[in-house]
Write a structure and sequence with these properties.
The chain is mostly helical. The protein starts with a helix and ends with a helix. A two-stranded antiparallel sheet has the order 1-2. 74% of the residues lie in helices and 1% in strands. The protein has one domain: Farnesyl Diphosphate Synthase (Orthogonal Bundle), CATH 1.10.600.10. The chain is globular and about 55 Å long. Its cofactor is Mg(2+). This is Polyprenyl synthetase family protein. Keywords: Magnesium, Metal-binding, Transferase. InterPro entries: Isoprenoid_synthase_dom_sf (IPR008949), Polyprenyl_synt (IPR000092), Polyprenyl_synt_CS (IPR033749).
Length: 324
C-alpha cells in the first residue's frame, strides 16, 4: 500500500462524499461559466487539504456535514486563489496544464475566481458554525496579505529568512493551518485541541512550501515549470537565502538583487542555481523541512486512534517525500 492509499484509508467514505459535493459546487447553467468551472473541476489535484480536514475531524470525533462543507469552503477558496495568482503572476501553466487565464483571459479568470470565493463563503455559512465562517474569512485575508508581502519583498535589499517564513505562514501554511483547525472546530473539539490542530497544520504547511521551493532547483517536466521558475518571477527562497547570508559574497548578492528585480538572464539564474546547490543551500532547506516534520508529529495526541495517527504520520511523510 502506497502512502496516499494509507492516508485515505480511514476516510474513504467521507472523501467520496466530499468529492461529490466538490463537483456539484463547480457547475453552472451559464454556458461560459459552466465551461470554465468544468475545466477547473477536471484538473483538481490530490485534495491534500480536504483530506487533512477530514483526518483532523476523525482525530477528535466523527466527520459531520459541517466538516464536509468546511472542507469544501477551504478548497474552493484555495482554488480561487490559484486562479487569481495565475493572473497576478502572468502564468500560462498550472501543474503542467494551461492556466485559466491562458485558455480564456484575465477578465474571465478574475470573475470566475470571484464566483468561487462567493461559493466558498456560502458553504462556510452552511456549516452553521460562526467560528468556521470567521476562519475562512481570516484565511482569505492571510492569502491576500501574503501575496502583498511577497510583492513588496521584490524591492527588499535584505535577504531575510524571517520575511520568507512570514510569507509562507500567510500563504501556503495558512491553508494547511485552516484545514487542520477547521477539522477540529467542525466536530466541536476543545480549545486546546483546536490550537494544537492549527499548529499541526502550520508545521505541515511550512514543510510543504520548503519542499516546493527545493523543486525549483531541479528540472522536472511533471511539475509544469522549468528550473529557476520562481527566480524568473523575482522570488528568492530558503536555499538561496541561507547561502547568501552564510557566504556574504558581494558578487552573489548583486546577482541575487538582479534576480529579485527580474533583470537577470536565464543563464545567470542557471549559474546562481548551481552555486546555491554547491554551497549547501538544498541540504540546509531539507534539514529545516524535516525539523518542521518532527514538530508536527510531536503535536499529535498520544491517545490518537492508531489508524488515524498512522494516516497523519503518512500524510506528513508524503509532504516531504513527494516528487512533484
Amino acid at each position: 500500500m502506497d502512502k496516499l492509499e494509507l492516508i485515505k484509508l480511514p476516510i474513504e467514505k467521507e472523501l467520496g462524499e466530499f468529492k461529490t459535493l466538490f463537483e456539484m459546487s463547480l457547475r453552472s447553467d451559464n454556458p461560459l461559466l459552466g465551461e470554465v468551472l468544468g475545466y477547473i473541476r477536471k484538473r483538481n489535484g490530490k485534495m491534500m487539504r480536504p483530506i487533512l480536514v477530514l483526518l483532523m475531524a476523525k482525530l477528535f470525533g466523527e466527520v459531520a456535514d459541517a466538516t464536509l462543507h468546511a472542507a469544501l469552503s477551504l478548497e474552493l477558496l484555495h482554488t480561487a486563489s490559484l486562479v487569481h495568482d495565475d493572473v497576478v503572476d502572468e502564468s500560462d501553466e498550472r501543474r503542467g496544464q494551461s492556466s485559466v487565464n491562458a485558455l480564456y483571459n484575465n477578465k474571465i479568470s478574475v470573475l470566475v475566481g470571484d464566483y468561487m470565493l462567493a461559493t466558498s463563503l456560502k458553504h462556510a455559512a452552511h456549516t452553521g458554525i460562526l467560528e468556521l465562517v470567521e476562519l475562512v474569512a481570516r484565511l482569505g485575508q492571510d492569502l491576500s496579505e501574503g501575496e502583498i508581502i511577497q510583492l513588496e519583498n521584490t524591492s527588499n535589499q535584505n535577504f531575510s529568512e524571517e520575511v520568507y517564513f512570514n510569507v509562507i505562514r500567510k500563504k501556503t501554511a495558512a491553508l494547511f493551518t485552516a484545514s487542520a483547525e477547521s477539522g477540529a472546530v467542525s466536530v466541536h473539539a476543545g480549545k486546546t485541541e483546536e490550537r494544537n490542530a492549527a499548529l499541526f497544520g502550520e508545521m505541515i504547511g511550512i514543510a510543504f512550501q520548503i519542499k516546493d521551493d527545493i523543486f525549483d532547483y531541479y528540472t522536472c517536466p511533471e511539475l509544469g515549470k522549468p528550473t529557476g521558475n520562481d527566480m524568473l518571477e523575482g522570488k528568492l527562497t530558503l536555499p538561496a537565502l541561507y547561502v547568501l547570508n552564510k557566504t556574504n559574497d558581494e558578487s552573489l548578492r548583486a546577482l541575487a538583487l538582479r534576480i529579485r528585480s527580474m533583470e537577470a538572464s536565464k543563464e545567470e539564474i542557471a549559474s546562481f542555481v548551481e552555486l546555491i546547490k554547491q554551497e549547501g543551500g538544498i541540504a540546509y532547506a531539507e534539514s529545516v523541512m524535516r525539523s518542521y516534520r518532527d514538530k508536527a508529529l510531536d503535536l499529535l495526541p498520544k491517545s490518537a486512534e492508531p489508524s488515524i495517527r498512522e494516516a497523519l504520520t503518512a500524510y506528513i511523510d508524503y509532504v516531504i517525500e513527494r516528487e512533484k
